[in-house]
Amino acid sequence: MRKSSFYKEAIQEINYFFGDFYLFDGFVVGEIKEGIVFTWDDHAKKLVEDLTNLYDHDGSNIVYITNRVHSYAVKPSDWIKFYKSDYKLRGYGIISYTSKGLLNVLIEKLFMKNKIKSFENLSDAIYWARDMGKPIISETA
């Protein structure tokens, strides 16, 4: 992310021992570090609490993009703990650079309640997140 043209648009960068997260207006790009087994109790709970405080809401207006530039594992069933804690997401984007990563997306979809979309590059994911963040305009009669 740091080498991309989008980096300069980030509002804030948060670094943890398990990953780096780049905050934008309406979306977050996360990069989990090599070899991590990402779980709710060890990683996600702290991240979600911090992001909730920074964005000052439950996440319902946030799109989360995971930029899987490193090899790591996710405990997909932990999405249940996310939802039971009354957190939400507007959308979830996964950038995967391997065929194994695409298989993992299918498994994660089983536990997701939100729009989930996979991408092959950061640019497409960010354009999608920005589009997801646009307000819905309804027509009046």
What does it look like?
The protein has 141 residues and is α/β, with parallel strands linked by helices. It contains four helices and eight strands. A hairpin with a 3-residue loop joins β2 and β3 (27-32). Mean pLDDT is 84; it is low at 136-141.
How are the strands of the biggest sheet laid out side by side?
1-2-3-5-7-8
How would the global form be characterised? globular
- Main pleated sheet: 6 strands, mixed
Order of helices and strands: EEEEHEEHEHEH
Summarize the structure.
This protein is of the alpha/beta class. 31% of the residues lie in helices and 25% in strands.
How does the SSE layout of this entry go?
Blueprint: E1 12-16, E2 19-23, E3 27-32, E4 37-38, H1 40-55, E5 63-67, E6 73-74, H2 79-84, E7 91-95, H3 99-109, E8 115-119, H4 122-132
Parallel strand pairs: 3-5, 4-6, 5-7, 7-8
Antiparallel strand pairs: 1-2, 2-3
Structural features:
141 residues, globular, disordered C terminus, 8 strands
